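Letters spell out the chain; backbone shape is given numerically. Both lines appear below:
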Amino acid sequence: MVITGLFIILLLVLVLPFAVHVVEKELEIFLFIMGLLAVTFTGQWSLSLVAEALADPIKITAAVLVAGLLFRVLKSSIDGHVNNILKATGVRWFIFLVVVLLGLFSSVITAIIAALVLVEIVGHLKLDKKNEILMVVFSCFSIGMGAALTPMGEPLGTIAVAKLSGAPYFAGFWFLFKNLWIYIIPGILITGITAALLVKKVSHAEGLKEKEDEKISGIFIRTGKVYIFVMALVLLGAGFKPIIDGYISKIPFYALYWMNIISAALDNATLTAAEVGPRMDITQVKSALMGLIIAGGLLIPGNIPNIIAANKLKIKSSEWAKAGVLFGLSLMVFYFVIILVFR
């Protein structure tokens, strides 16, 4: 009964943002309510969970707030640099460089800062809305992949290294890089090339750039929405833990990889905490992490960069899915073959 109820909640999370306009418009509140239902339905409530749900979003939202205020001050300077680089490289090379460099550097500057830099850059590209959405989605795939190369890039990496820090892996700072770079760096390059080929310059088009400079009040409102979003993902992860715990231990690597497509709708860091452990062999670890990393780009809730960029640029769930699902599933098939052959 509990498992059936959780699958119904998961179905609602996946379907309603695309089918009901008010849900799409108030996605943060909807996911928060779904998280409350999942935790209540499974009896997962505890003081530690409440503390975690309140505390986990603080660092992320603080970074969003500080970066938002900082970029507001540096806006004119960013404008000039973007325009100069665009003139020197042309649109295609510029798009390729943005997607690839943000992906590579996200493991150092964090996925949050990379996403905020992306938002500022996209605001000055002067593409049409469709092509700017494509660029945002491709860039967030790249950021999500690159940030997983070190434990400082995003929570997924931090948690994975912490869970594997003991025997037999004794994971340290470079553990993820050593084991995943062969998959992730080519993936970032593929994503950059795809973006450069598909994102096109349309003259005199209306893009995602806001008509007026964002007010300070808007920055605080966006920060609050990010806080609620992250809290919702923590609750959803905790609520769905019975499904993960009940089916994870004996799952072969190939099934584990595809199972993690639920990362499109749930927080991949929470899923990492629930899934990854020292009893897994290295193929299972790689498969689980790559499934989480790639699937996190399919939909807006799947990764922090998606949430920040979509919220700031007012990208709808359906708009994101049109660009993200096909490319993400193609990447998942590609990496499944790679893992299957070279494990």
In short: The two ends are 37 Å apart (CA to CA).
